[in-house]
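Intended use. Records such as the ABC transporter ATP-binding protein entry shown here are meant for training and evaluating sequence-to-structure methods. They are not intended to support clinical decisions.
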Amino acid sequence: MTTTALLDARSVCAWYGDAQVLHGADLRIGEGEIVLLCGRNGSGRSTLAKALAGLVRRTGSIRFEGEEFIARPTFEIARSGIGYVAEQREVFPTLSVEDNLRLGIKPGQSRSARARMADAFARFPTLAQRRAAPAGALSGGEQQMLVLARALMGEPRLLIVDEPTEGLAPQAVEAVRQCLSSLRERGGAVLLIEQRLTMAGAVADRVAVMGHGRIVYDGAVDTLDPRIVDEWIALGGGR
């Protein structure tokens, strides 16, 4: 890979309480790059995403734009330009769609909130139609669009997205795909945790495969060996 390293994570270990999930994971993401992260249940994919976002206890080295982030709290990581979209579609159910989006705005951003809101509604027209509706009244697909749009309101340099198309209709899946592609075209990078290899392979530049809390393969999507798929990916998605 010849792109400049935006994120460089090395020997990352992570725990839930006393249970260690990551055992020295290494991951590098370049500027303007989409990296697909996949693996089986229990492989550590979501835990690695949470470690990068500062949501679990972790050790090792996580450098973002050349600065060490391993000891930084989550709010500093978010303000520094790393956006995180969890699998659970965590919306504020009693707030309107528009108010949920406003919560994604970071202090001191150069572009106006109105301009970013217009971008969000242009990207996801369904949200524009339901801008005054409480987020809890949205369908699962609409909520997924909302949490993705909310993360983009902060204009992240790196967006970490966990299973964005799970349970979505084909039209919603295509909207997510277009959103990730447009983010890359503007120079942003994406870490995409996804089991739909067909969709993910269409947008990803590289694939990183996790197994037993480590990266066991890292390379181009089109050269992914079927034996790697059989050994480390087949039989379902990983946490």
